[in-house]
Specification:
Length: about 180
Amino acid sequence: MPGTPRLGLLRDPDFGRLSAATALGQLGDRVLFLALPLVAIEALHADEFQVGALAATTTAGSLLVGLPAGAWVDRVRKRPVMISTDLVRAFVLTTVPLAWWAGLLTIWWVYTVALVHGILTVFFDVAYTSCLPRLVGRGNLVEGNAKLSAVRSVTSIGGPAVAGPAAGLVGAPRRCW
């Protein structure tokens, strides 16, 4: 009885792209969860309450739009939702250094970025979860979920491991000028 090839679904170009996008997106999210509070602390001198509120704001999107997002995403094509939410999340994140550079960065700006990013992440995650069965088929769903879960686990550990040294290398915004 021949065994399943080691790469399995990774040989499928569409699944390979989804895996790579998952790794990159998850790595970005993990870096964000460390970097955004560091920006608040270093550049804005945020206190403990403000940093705690920022942490809560990053996950508030699930509470605010979780159910409506699921109902809406269920009725539309998943790939455009995933692409557009990723692009808008990237744009929203770029407003932080731009606002700092323009002298407009406030804790409320950072809260807004965290909330918008969190809401968009909910839409992305719902589309992402529901596109996998259609992409790989029911017969490969266990393998697909296992491979994507492994990617998410590695980036959950690797993201902060990359973000910490990167923050030390780049430095806080106020030290750059």
